[in-house]
Design a protein that fits this description.
With about 190 residues, this protein is α+β, with helices and mostly antiparallel strands. It is built from nine helices and five strands; from the N terminus they run E-E-E-H-E-E-H-H-H-H-H-H-H-H. It has a five-stranded antiparallel sheet, covered by helices on one side. It is elongated.
């Protein structure tokens, strides 16, 4: 199994790259998150890889970091999620965004990714629970989960980005009600 590749970046044709590794050109499919962080053509590049061997093809998928590759491997284990869908998910959201969506059980954030419908999003959340994302667990964890989820949805509905909403939620006092949490988050966002 090819686990990492280092070489000269010869071609960039999203989502595929051609990497020259001592005279052998490897075609590697990458998520857009990795693609945007690539150096210029002719530069040296190192990617973590996942090799998929099928009856009709040998495919190589590349990732800018080990966390992306680990999430990709978790995603392709899920029934109905193939490599292309997994790449689409990683292209549409960061590993941290996906982990947060799983933690908060936010199917709406996954549905925004092209190719992911409501049923697939719900299956992803169910399958990834406990494997990706941290538990919000504390006393009354269900209440806290619902409050954070509602606050996040409210901030997104008000036009704040996932990143801004996440930062505002990080500093929120534990055990906040939805209305108090929204007030706190809006105050924090107005200062930034």
């Amino acid at each position: 199994m090819i686990g990492r590749i280092s070489g000269t970046l010869l071609e960039k044709n999203p989502p595929q790259l051609l990497i020259d590794c001592h005279g052998v050109g490897y075609e590697v499919d990458v998520p857009m998150s990795t693609y945007y962080d690539l150096p210029a053509l002719g530069a040296q590049v190192t990617l973590f890889t996942h090799q998929a061997i099928r009856e009709d093809a040998h495919l190589l998928f590349g990732f800018g970091n080990a966390a992306e590759r680990a999430v990709f491997r978790q995603l392709i284990k899920i029934t109905g999620v193939g490599a292309r869908t997994a790449l689409s998910i990683l292209s549409g959201m960061t590993v941290n965004d996906l982990a947060q969506a799983v933690t908060l059980q936010e199917a709406g954030r996954l549905v925004k990714v092209p190719g992911i419908g409501k049923k697939t999003a719900e299956r992803l959340l169910l399958e990834l629970k406990g494997k990706l994302g941290a538990d919000l667990g504390s006393v009354g964890g269900v209440v806290q989960h619902d409050a954070k989820s509602d606050i996040l949805n409210a901030l997104l509905a008000l036009g704040y980005s996932d990143k801004e909403a996440t930062v505002a939620l990080k500093n929120m006092p534990a055990g906040s009600t939805v209305s108090d949490g929204i007030k706190f988050a809006l105050k924090a966002l107005s200062k930034g």
